[in-house]
Amino acid sequence: MSPKTLYDKIWDAHLAHEGEDGTCLLYIDRHLVHEVTSPQAFEGLRMTGRTVRAPDKTIAVPDHNVPTTADRTAGIKNPESRIQVEALDKNARDFGLINYYEMNDVRQGIVHIVGPEQGWTLPGMTVVCGDSHTATHGAFGSLAHGIGTSEVEHVLATQTLIQKKSKNMKVEITGKLAPGVTAKDITLSVIGKTGTAGGTGYVIEYCGEAIRSLSMEGRMTVCNMAIEGGARAGLIAPDETTFDYVKGRPHAPKGAQWEAALTWWKTLYSDDDAHWDKVITIRGEDIAPVVTWGTSPEDVLPITEYVPTPESFTGGKVAGVRRALDYMGLTPGQKLSEIEIDTVFIGSCTNGRIEDLRAAAAILKGKKIKDGLRAMVVPGSGLVRAQAEEEGLADIFKDAGFEWRLAGCSMCLAMNPDQLAPGERCAATSNRNFEGRQGRGGRTHLMSPAMAAAAAVTGRLTDVRKMMTDGVAA
Amino acid sequence: MDKFETFTGVAAPLPIINVDTDMIIPKQFLKTIKRSGLGVSLFDEMRYDDDRNEIPDFVLNQPAYREAEILVAGENFGCGSSREHAPWAIKDFGLKCIVAPSYADIFYSNCFKNGILPIVLPQEQVDILMQDAEKGANARMTVDLEAQQITSSDGQVFSFEVDSFKKHCLLNGLDDIGLTMEKAAAIDAFEAAAAQARPWV
Ligand code: SF4
Fold this sequence. Notes:
Chain A: [4Fe-4S] cluster binds at residues 349, 409, 412. Chain A is of the alpha/beta class and 474 residues long.
């Protein structure tokens, strides 16, 4: 047998049909659904009299526009948001989706956090969702990617997706990370190196010692942003860390099925002599805590650097950077660590898991946020929130001056009332710093939870390492 | 879906790289549960000021380009989210074809599913068409999908590549789901075999 990559193996195991022109039908094991990209798909089914082929493999949860304030149990005030969430309630009922976590269920949260948490996401699966950050699930060694609404409808109706195979790209992070450097710094640094289109046409497999040493939470952070690098999906081969995380989750296999699953999962790795179309290697030791300065996730630099000059770029990027700096209100040559912020947002499917909250709380313990700053923590799910309360993290955040919210997407894309005002500057743990992403005219700097916590204390972008002694939060 | 027919139309220049889906259609318009009606909000933040007045400088607000059917843009067009609202807004505005050096994956495939043709051409050729588009309403280009050619206002012909299956569906206005359902037997067989091999799924 010819050597295969992990992607090749999962692809081959899910190929339901191959046409003469190479167009393939890929069977889908898990279809995650949220309220924003699904209404038109269900409408399409109704109009054509079609049904959902595999309701047991379809998981639905509202997340993008649910309010994250305590009063949400009283219902959603914004009529459009309410209509969208109610539409999902109704579609789940009408189409027999039993795996539905409604807004006030404690298990509700961001779809990409709920899936793994409930054990829906397992190694070797194909996972899709009408959301680009579906790449997150690749952390389990599953082939996971975002799809458009027409494809949502296609998967609902046929449990398959029309696909052409992507190319294989290996991103290896060797060695160890320095103290203060996290999974978020890895993933941002990779995009900084490849650019937002560097992964276009590829499925990325992340490997190397620094990746192996990450927890599942960290691996999800890395894969989450594969899409920001343009890739179709990002994945990490499953290992003991993966199996330990999965074991005992509500929808993970049990007993003899667990053993059978484990036997197969252990075959899920790229063969030594597998073919790679592109390889990128980064030394873990070379990665610093980073922040973004522009309006594209590739606009990333170590916190110790300075705002770049447009002329230091080439091609269309010169005008792009000029436009970005103008939008961001920054001057070339300015020290990144002197940029003052107004808001801090900790949350999102990139960094809304328990480990992220622990990292931020470790920095904030016994400290206060800078006077006049607005700061909020939005846990990624109701269960993350409950665990953080149990561990005492919620109190640390509240004592420091953070708002402690209910689970949802919140200020990651500002579809609910959590938005930036024009010109307002935010240190955010989310994944996109596009113009207007967090509110019209809002300015976003992406960074890790620890870096965002450090920024909250000083009121400006801050090197978290200065708040640590011997790698531990001081 | 309507069949994609050869047409001659006005091309609007948008010389920006990394045009992301938040620029194409900001999230406040994702709250709709319909596919139609998004055209007025296309490029909303570039098109309107805070009081919802049109910004006269923006290309699609200029008289010459209000009826544009083609958009010429920079590389990595459509990057960002998977929102199909982006192609819905583009289509609803009246644009049928985009020309750029490259696109983000999901956006690219979303276009075909909505009857929009995203043409990929090398940067130098996009530059030529960009200059052509800047001439205004007189610069009408012709898009011929069957022949895989786009012709500039002064008669220069550029050939482009397109996946044969996608081309076939676009030309004939075919619905993917109907086509896949014809393969139901293969899906049934696969599903049964997979349930044996991986019963825990
Ligand atoms: S948290 Fe942000 S990126 Fe993640 S699913 Fe929600 S809106 Fe999308």
